[in-house]
Write a sequence for this structure.
């Protein structure tokens, strides 16, 4: 069966973009990767590498390009760049669009889908929530600790035929995929993990998620932050179950000494997605009447650390 989205561009060939792009390409789609610093090394090797479940998968040959104009119009753009680089996105995306090109953003936090919808129309935009633990380990190389799952949803309303078609394409490519009835609700569910674990690994001095789970005080703080996310989501009309919170502590220890993307960026001296992951959720929760003192404190601390 031919894929529903035969031509795909990956904008942001980091850990997320590489993982899903390689999967989709091995699944039969024509996938073109937009790259900058990694481009010479990837072209010299002639492949992209994915290590997952004890196996090494190699995509050869690879279609890697320096500009979106070289890629041209595609059926789907998967956006994996950090939200801190969104100001450059409109100029990058324009050459990739035809009349029905869909935009799937796998960016963290809140606000990315709104940014795209404001500029390209909500009917183009889908949100992708990657419940995954992986890191880029070299040019065109990604190591996946836990493949998890991908949740996708429409920005402008409930799922459509194309939402299910894209989910089926990911599923056929080996990605466990769910379709969200409400994208905003799914985003708040992901924040249950991202807010405490991304934040505390930085605030506690650059430690892995395994150390947070093993330390009673840090684990208690993580759980308290999750409760605040739960309260903020409830105030906005998105209930999150206690069982979902508990599952975050069930799935995290098996990841081992995992360093989330925010910690990797912080230690490398790169800009951290502070506003998307902590600032915007905090503001929306408070505006809805929720009390989030721990989130407010963590947000302020991360801003100070990033300024240093």
């Amino acid at each position: 069966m031919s894929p529903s989205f035969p031509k795909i561009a990956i904008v942001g060939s980091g850990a997320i973009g590489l993982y899903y792009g390689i999967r989709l390409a091995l699944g039969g789609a024509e996938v073109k990767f937009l790259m900058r610093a990694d481009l010479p090394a990837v072209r010299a090797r002639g492949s992209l590498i994915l290590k997952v479940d004890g196996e090494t998968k190699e995509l050869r040959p690879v279609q890697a390009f320096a500009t979106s104009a070289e890629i041209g119009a595609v059926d789907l753009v998967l956006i994996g760049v950090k939200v801190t680089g969104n100001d450059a996105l409109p100029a990058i995306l324009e050459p990739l669009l035809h009349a029905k090109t869909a935009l799937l953003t796998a960016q963290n936090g809140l606000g990315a889908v709104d940014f795209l919808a404001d500029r390209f129309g909500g009917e183009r935009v889908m949100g992708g929530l990657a419940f995954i633990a992986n890191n880029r380990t070299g040019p065109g190389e990604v190591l996946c600790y836990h493949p998890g799952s991908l949740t996708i949803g429409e920005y402008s309303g409930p799922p459509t035929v194309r939402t299910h078609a894209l989910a089926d394409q990911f599923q056929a490519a080996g990605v466990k995929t769910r379709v969200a009835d409400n994208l905003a609700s799914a985003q708040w569910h992901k924040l249950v993990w991202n807010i405490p674990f991304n934040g505390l690994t930085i605030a506690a001095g650059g430690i892995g998620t395994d150390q947070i789970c093993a330390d009673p005080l840090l684990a208690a703080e993580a759980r308290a932050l999750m409760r605040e996310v739960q309260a903020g989501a409830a105030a906005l009309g998105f209930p999150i179950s206690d069982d979902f919170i508990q599952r975050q502590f069930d799935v995290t220890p098996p990841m081992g000494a995992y360093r989330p993307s925010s910690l990797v960026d912080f230690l490398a001296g790169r800009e951290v997605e502070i506003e998307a992951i902590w600032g915007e959720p905090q503001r929306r929760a408070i505006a809805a009447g929720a009390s989030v003192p721990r989130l407010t404190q963590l947000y302020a601390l991360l801003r100070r650390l990033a300024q240093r």
